[in-house]
Request: fold
Amino acid sequence: MAFAVVPEPVPAPGTGEVIGIDRGVTITAALSDGRKLNCPQLTVKERARIRKHERRAARAKKGSPEKRAGYAKAARLKAREVNRRKDWCEKISTLLARGFDLIRFEKLNIKNMTRSAKGTVEQPGRNVAQKSGLNRGILAQGWGLLRQRTEDKAPGRVEDVPAPYTSLRCSACGWIEKKSRKSQADFECVSCGFICNADENAANNVAAGQGGIPRPRRSAGAGGVTAATSRSNAREPQPNWVGIPLF
Reply:
């Protein structure tokens, strides 16, 4: 017999600490406290074994025991990756629920992000193979499961912060500029010179709730406030967080 048991929510630590989480493919979860967590994947040898079993199964005679056995062996290895991902999400969600009073995630529409690029017969898609590889990489990170399990264990203590500009805004001065994102891993503010890991900088913005469309900015020399233009930079009044803990 099997019994489904819904565990009790994890009590808040009561420290008032807030954590921001930026999710990505290279780094699964970058935390605003500087930690970088990666979801476990299959090893190179395990992936090679999957390819070997699938090749042998493809060459085997249709309906033969060898074909069924080959695909079954490949499926068991793929299931191993799924189990590792679920175990990792359970452990990390418990760590977040126990360690912080408020947990903020970058709001991502994973369903739209992993939509197929095949298109239709009349309008076929482009770069279909590259998009398929990106989709597999995103789904292998367990973004949605991590967010769901954290909400289950810390109900009412999980918030979503709009994703736009979280990776382009400087967490030190608030200046938004696409040129500040030097690479996938490097962030250097063109305004104040603040240097930080790009994922950690985004996580700091998520922790501070800084996301979404920029607010109106003060036009230079006019003394008034104008709506933010289509340019990629905008100054937002913020305290100087350089060298000072966010919370």
User: Anything to note?
Assistant: The CA atoms of residues 70 and 170 lie 51 Å apart. Residues 216-247 have pLDDT under 50 and may be disordered.
